[in-house]
Structures are given as structure tokens and as C-alpha cells.
Amino acid sequence: MFLRIVPIRRPSGKVDQYVRLVESYYDGGKIKQRTIANLGRKELLAPHVDRLVELLRGEPPKTTGSWEAKSAAVWGQTLVARVLWEELGFPELLEASGKRSQAFSLAERAFILVAHRLICPGSEHALAQWLETDYVADRRGERILPIWKENGRVRVDHRFLWPWYRTLDELIQRKEELEEGLFSRLRDLFFPPA
Could you name the domain of life of the organism this protein comes from (predicted)? Predict the structure, then answer.
């Protein structure tokens, strides 16, 4: 394998140079070449070219200092749950009342409770720990983190827990309305209207 510099002329006349990782191989007795990876623009890679060549030669990595990951939150499962949640139309059904409690709407709080029970079943107390390990974001994309405080056996601040408890109360009050709305959305899921 080797690096190849490829010039690309832009419509403005400017020429950008790109670096490609290329491999030689035999095909029917002939030597051919194929691009393994496009690595990016040469001027952006220039400070890293020496290290890239070392890696291509198979040299061990040179480390300076120690590296430590600060966090590695899981987000894929919650993303899948959010897509399904929105496909079913729950945000529209739950936002119909227009009520907002604290920082999150009823739809956002209900989604987080449902996703928590799908992905890592547990109580509202366990919800706080789940929010620490998984990347759960509100509809604006901002990560939701619990508020910790020693309260006897409970390590979560009561001001953080109470909105989640109220969510269940609000949902049970709207149970029939939600069931009818969900039924009307899904009744022709498998048998579309003729």
C-alpha cells in the first residue's frame, strides 16, 4: 500500500490536492491498483503524514502521555426508540394538551420513561443511573443528565424525580384519549383503506 496525491480542479480554477490510500494487486497476471480509502485534503493531513506513513509500515503507535476516555455514552438504542416513538405519532398525541412541566413537555418525559423501560427496565430511581450511562437527549438534542443529592437511601435529588412521577399521573388521566388516538393511527397499519 502507498499514498497517492490526486489533484482536483475546482470550477473556480483552484486546485485542491487529496490524499488516497492505494493498494497494488494482481489480476490475471497484470498488476492493477485500487483506492482503499480517500483520506482527505493534503493540507489538512500534512501535520499527520509522518504518523500515517509509520502506521502503513506497521510500526507500533508512539504514545506521549496517557489517554483516558472521559465518557462513552451509548446512544444507538435510544435513537431507535425515538424513531419508533415518532413513527407511532406519540409526540403529536401527547402535545395536544400543550401543558409543560418544568423543563420537559409531557411527550418528552413519556418518551424517556418508555425508552428507559424498553432498553434498561427499572424504576424512576434507576432512571437516573441509566441517564448517566446512555446518551438521552431532548428534542433539541441536548443531553439529559440527572441531579444527584444524598437523600438517605435515595441518591437522586427529589426535584429531579418528581416530574417523572407526575408523568405517570398525567398519562393515566389521558389514557382513553391516547388509546383512541393511537388506535385511529394504527387501525389500517396492515390493511390500508380500499
Answer: Bacteria
In sequence order, what are the residues at sequence separation of 6 or more whose Cβ sits closer than 8 angstroms to the Cβ of residue 62?
Answer: 51, 54
In the predicted model, what is the mean pLDDT of residues 52-61?
Answer: 76
Q: Residue 157 corresponds to which cell in the numbers above?
A: 435529588
Q: Is residue 113 very low, low, confident or very high in pLDDT (cuts 50, 70, 90)? A: very high
Contact 98, 154 (CB under 8 A): no
Cα dihedral: 74, 76, 80, 82 (round 10): 50
Across the range 187-191, mean pLDDT stands at 76
Strand-pairing partners, residue 15, are: 9
Q: If you compute the radius of gyration of the chain from its CA atoms, what whole number of angstroms results?
A: 27
Q: Cell numbers of 192, please?
A: 390500508
Burial degree of 146 (CB within 10 A; 0-12, 13-18, 19+): middle
pLDDT tens figures, 20-43: 888 898 988 899 999 888 888 888
Q: How far apart are CA 60 and CA 72, in angstroms?
A: 25
Residues forming beta bridges with residue 157, ordered by sequence position: none
Which domains, ranges and CATH numbers included, belong to the chain? 2-57 (2.10.70), 76-186 (no CATH)
pTM over 0.70: no
